[in-house]
Fold each of these.
Amino acid sequence: MFFDGITIGICACLALLAVISLLADTFSKKIPTCEDKIETGQGRPVSVIVISDNNARELQSGLQAFLSQDYPAGYEVIVVVDKDEDGTGDVLKAYGNVENLYTTFVPDSSRYMSRRKLAVTLGVKAAKHELVILTDATCRPLSSKWIGTMVSSCTNGVDMVLGYSNYEEGIEHSKMFFRFHREYALFREAVFGTAYGMAGNNLMFKKSMFMSGNGFQGNLKYLRGEYDFLVNKYASKGNVAVAVNADAYVVETVPSKKAWHDRNVFYVETRKHLRRSFRHRMNFCIDMFSLHACFLASLGSMLFAVVSSRWIVLVLSMLALCVMFFSRICHAKHAMRVFNVSVPLWKVVPFELCIVWHDLKYMIIHKFADKYEFISHKS
């Protein structure tokens, strides 16, 4: 066992990488919560827009959760049907006597624009109230206080509220964690800077803001990314809030393999057209680079220490690796507890190490895909 310049240099590099990795960790910065003071939002009626795309089964099981909200100020539910090839219309007819439920259909003749964005636009135009909550038929609120909790975050100066959503139990832990990781990063940006986009399907905004800004003008041809484009276009510093209280959450049904594939590939296309992408991607890249650098440097120095019999380096390498793992697990544990995410803690760091490779996979798929798959203008 000896202590020389090489040993000092390796240990210093490991310590530096470990510190950078912990500071760059997406979960290291806590999102402030205010769960003790939730206002009822009385006096502010709301329009809930639910976008349906062949979602008869999901509407059958989840529509009642939208219609049974405990919200004295009053609300309406507008279901906008993009496609009805599975009996969606028949499901909605069963609710024909519900006074605050309205239905509208996207015309089959609509071309040269995203049908999902057109569905959102039709829903907003049909909305009677200034406050609008946008979600999907694949989602359902977990609480009867959902509307009231979302409205409580829409205080003075706030034009948009981001609500948390993730997949229901039964999905692979990796998919739940990947989505949560991105959503948490986006929430951080919204709280501490300017909101960039949205990973979920639970968004409140003001109708007047949408209409005065000409809705999706400028990105109508891109088939997907309606939530990302809305947040990216209309967010400014201080005008976006995050609803952290559990009563504001919605849960989404487990997606099919095709739906999961499409969501990831289309996001690669969407982010190419979002503003403020450099800063957003830089934060992510620093986190991923520092994590991998610390992990690989620790393993490499451990191997070097064994070969060269530098036992001090071996001990400190193992210590750096343990500190990195333990700290990241603690950060993730707090974040997941706040949002009620159930992912085994021992999987956290392996999942974080896989995120960049998961993203790279879909970047490669996107690169070799037909670019006309992502836009409505085919000629």
Note: The chain has a mean pLDDT of 91.
Amino acid sequence: MALTRLIELLERLDEAHQQMLELAATKKDAIMDNKVEGIVEILNRESKLMKLTGQLEEQRAEAAYAFLQGVGIRSNLNLNLTELSRLVFDPDDKSRLLHIQRKLSDTLQSLKKANELNQKLIEQSLTFIDYSLDILVGRPNQEITYHHPSEKSGGISRPGLFDARG
């Protein structure tokens, strides 16, 4: 019974991560289309899914502990699914457990790749914005070599974007 509960929780975790993967694809499109409101909405939905994932993860840990107690292990070991599968003797249950492990692992790898891509897209967008601002505002023309501030050249000196001295 505890194993069935564990497998059900792993399946629910996979479903939550699949939803996050779908949101990552939607977020990629929103980033590429520069839809800030859409990105904010997606971030809110991701936040809710993260809370759900945290709750499911706690329940999974409890179910794993209950399974360990059910097979006679009284300590609170932190075993991964491969190690846990060695304690399952029914071939069908073992197969189901290993299947959901592979499925969850694949989903997490896809989610990691999607998040890395979105991160790169955001970095590129920020770089483009910074470049655009530099073009619009312009950088002060400064010479490469050092000159003492009292040595003014013949032209009008430009102190920079902000004159802190008033």
Note: DSSP finds four helices and no strands in the chain.
Amino acid sequence: MRHALSLAARGLGQVAPNPAVGCVIVKEGRVVGRGWTQRGGRPHAETVALIQAGDAASGATAYVTLEPCAHHGQTPPCAEALVKAGIARVVCAIEDPDPRVSGRGFEILRDAGLFIITSVMEKQARDLNEGFFQNRSANRPRVTLKIAQSLDGRIAAANGESKWITGEDARRFGHLLRAKHDAILVGIETALADDPDLTCRLPGLEDRSPVRVVLDSMLRLPVSSKLAKTAKQVPVIVYTLSEPRADLVALGVEIVQVAEAGGHPSITAVLGDLAARGITRLLVEGGAGMHAAFLDAGAADRLEVFHAPALLGGVGRPAVSALSAAGLGMAPRFERLTLRQLGDDVLETLAAKA
């Protein structure tokens, strides 16, 4: 199952609105087939593994990270495919929350006489597809805030200079994070100050750039910006309170008017719209106002904080602007999951406490 989960992770950022699933088929102590959900969500992991296994699937055991699907869509149900291939036993990590499945996949397998084992490495499987589960249960994607900061929590010097606080290893890892997310979001101030591409530029992963999202209350995004000029190559969605601009639309920018909250696009409305589009994993890259908005909305599930061994002082720009929390008792709390050395920098990964 651990191997199946590692295979499933290869699909992160590429399979939405589907979950990232891995499947390993074992017979007589030997792996005869393996697969993971392919780009765009098809074919499913089980289909890929069964094709690789061929006749060896008969009498074998399938290890699957998510309950095999039970509904007819673009392809027949994976549960039926496992039965047809002669699989004898299925070991599964977790039930699929999709109402079209939700136990029916297991039912098909049991009715066909297969031996079923469930809840194997369930926590790891839930963590892997947390965005898919939240999309179904909470109508929003999993949100990760990415922060590159100095030791004293500053993301830019007093003059606004921020390139580069972290070193090359940390920046490469940041691009890997982009490749593993369905969408990436910044506020208009970051878009104006940095004119970012927001693409993945790791060699070999250039085609894994996420959908790019900008929160822009007054619709100030320039037509000369890199985002606008490349919108037909990599999608750009702008959430705004203003009427659409024809010049941006002509360049391929999608403009979406949403409800207002405190003079800005409502975070809840934005996340709901992204979820409806099938987005399951959203990476927020700032700036400080965006970080604060998501924290105040209770919509920051993970933090990826890159700590650079530098001090910028009190006049530097903070990683997070003012929060609504009035005291320590109301402050957003996180638990540390991992610490990782990246060159001279340290990456701290944290998850929101329930």
Note: The two ends are 27 Å apart (CA to CA).
